[in-house]
């Protein structure tokens, strides 16, 4: 039985069914959990949360002497109004907003999602069953960000530290799967499940010793075999989970399969590989090669797209890969490009008219080798004569503040 109580009535042994705020606004990665840690109780009491729902079938009930009177009609009306206001707020939260606005939100979403995935995966490593219901709030927040502005979170998630690669990679692949699902016109439930599958696809890496997973040098044959076994290990973990559906199981096991049959673990080919597994293969590779790893620095986004195009015949399903390029762009958000006017610009937003003509921010003259007044330029406009001639390496031009140029965020967030 679910009961709504004030936080003052909380005591250890109660089972929290829901906290009276959104997932991003409370300090826990789960929305449901047994309240058995005194520090967690102190944390809740220190927040602005006033009401919580408890599940008395899974934990302690309210003491009889502390039961409050039933809600008055006025309190019920207040609850209804609050619920409607929250629904309206959530609706507005998925309306498209500017890159700078979403980048600020995406930083918070990335940070909390990373911590949530880390906690979830580490608990799985220790033997806890993974519960899909606990992962869905992460997927919802990431999905909403992608809907509001596709480039922000995807580009920020790429700028991960080497130390938290596995967790942020899961966040990034979730976002990429959502974006690709939208491009493929999947329905809302399919997109949701694609995002969840992306979030869980690498859980098997929790069974690899950290010294192997984060090894900066070349792996031995035995270590490489251990790494290649992570899809099978992850599949076993998910089979023991709660509410894990076939899509997540399939993606976890088959995200390293290739259409030419040279992938692993089952060497599936083309039609033997599901739509979602083919999607995950593209998203997984893109984030992997654009991210800094313990053993190498990531490639620039535009260069990565070009490299993937070279591999695409044997590695990826062509229809899926082409849809992926449309979803992130030939020159993804945050890419440094050179224009025919001999100026450097950073890509700000993709164009609906042409993959080759995104919106950019011009800020550097290669002729003068110096900064110029930043200028927003829509290369797809009929009167625009400038065009992209190449993608560029920020280090070559000594551009340390590329993140700030496109997102408005200081370089500290790299």
Structure description:
The protein has helices at residues 38-46, 73-93, 99-125, 132-148, 150-158, 165-183, 188-200, 210-213, 221-228, 230-239, 246-254, 275-290, 301-315, 318-328, 402-407, and strands at 2-6, 15-19, 33-34, 51-55, 336-339, 343-349, 359-365, 370-378, 388-391. It is α+β, with helices and mostly antiparallel strands and 414 residues long. It folds into three domains: 2-91, no CATH class; 98-328, Hypothetical protein af1432, CATH 1.10.3210.10; 336-413. The strands form two sheets. The chain has a five-stranded antiparallel beta sheet. Strands 1-4-2-3 form a four-stranded antiparallel beta sheet, with no helix packed on it. Strand 7 and strand 8 form a beta hairpin. It is globular. It starts with a strand and ends in a 7-residue tail after the last helix. It comes from Gallionella capsiferriformans (strain ES-2) (Gallionella ferruginea capsiferriformans (strain ES-2)). GO terms for molecular function: phosphoric diester hydrolase activity. Keywords: Hydrolase. Residues 142-340 form the HD-GYP domain.
Helix-strand makeup class:
alpha+beta
Q: Calculate the mean pLDDT score and round it.
A: 88
DSSP summary, beta strand count? 9
Described by strand count, sense and barrel closure, the largest sheet is: 5 strands, antiparallel
CATH superfamily of the largest domain: Hypothetical protein af1432
> How many angstroms does the end-to-end distance come to?
46 Å
Residue stretches low in confidence (pLDDT < 50, at least 5 long) are: 67-77, 83-92
Q: Write down the Rg.
A: 23 Å
Output the number of helix runs.
Answer: 15
Main sheet: strand order: 8-7-6-5-9
């Amino acid at each position: 039985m679910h009961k709504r109580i004030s936080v003052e009535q909380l005591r250890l042994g109660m089972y929290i069914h829901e906290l009276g705020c959104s997932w991003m606004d409370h300090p826990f990665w789960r929305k449901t959990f047994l309240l058995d840690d005194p520090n967690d109780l102190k944390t809740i009491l220190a927040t602005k949360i006033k009401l919580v729902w408890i599940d008395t079938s899974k934990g302690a009930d309210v003491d009889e002497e502390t039961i409050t009177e039933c809600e008055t009609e006025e309190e019920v009306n207040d609850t209804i109004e609050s619920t409607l206001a929250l629904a309206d707020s959530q609706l507005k939260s998925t309306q498209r907003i500017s890159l700078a606005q979403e980048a600020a939100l995406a930083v918070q979403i990335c940070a909390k999602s990373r911590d949530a995935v880390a906690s979830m995966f580490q608990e799985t490593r220790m033997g806890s069953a993974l519960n899909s219901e606990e992962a869905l709030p992460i997927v919802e927040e990431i999905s909403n960000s992608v809907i509001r502005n596709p480039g922000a979170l995807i580009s920020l998630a790429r700028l991960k530290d080497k130390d938290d690669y596995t967790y942020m990679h899961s966040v990034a692949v979730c976002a990429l799967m959502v974006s690709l699902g939208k491009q493929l016109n999947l329905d809302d439930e399919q997109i949701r499940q694609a995002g969840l599958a992306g979030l869980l696809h690498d859980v098997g890496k929790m069974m690899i010793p950290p010294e192997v997973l984060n090894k900066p040098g070349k792996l031995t044959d035995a270590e490489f075999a251990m790494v290649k076994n992570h899809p099978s290990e992850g599949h076993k973990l998910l089979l023991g989970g709660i509410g894990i559906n076939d899509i997540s199981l399939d993606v976890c096991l088959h995200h390293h399969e290739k259409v030419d049959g040279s992938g692993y673990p089952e060497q599936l080919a083309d039609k033997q590989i599901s739509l979602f597994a083919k999607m995950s293969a593209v998203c997984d590779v893109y984030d992997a090669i654009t991210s800094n790893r313990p053993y190498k620095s990531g490639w620039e986004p535009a260069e990565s797209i070009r490299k993937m195009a070279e591999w695409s015949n044997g590695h990826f399903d062509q229809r899926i890969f082409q849809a992926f390029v449309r979803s992130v762009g030939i020159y993804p958000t945050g890419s440094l490009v050179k224009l025919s006017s001999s100026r450097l610009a950073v890509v700000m937003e993709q164009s609906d008219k042409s993959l080759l003509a995104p919106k950019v921010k011009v800020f550097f003259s290669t002729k003068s080798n110096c900064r110029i007044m930043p200028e927003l330029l829509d290369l797809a406009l009929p009167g625009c004569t400038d065009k992209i001639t190449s993608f560029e390496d920020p280090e070559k031009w000594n551009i340390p503040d590329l993140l700030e140029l496109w997102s408005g965020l200081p370089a500290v967030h790299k």
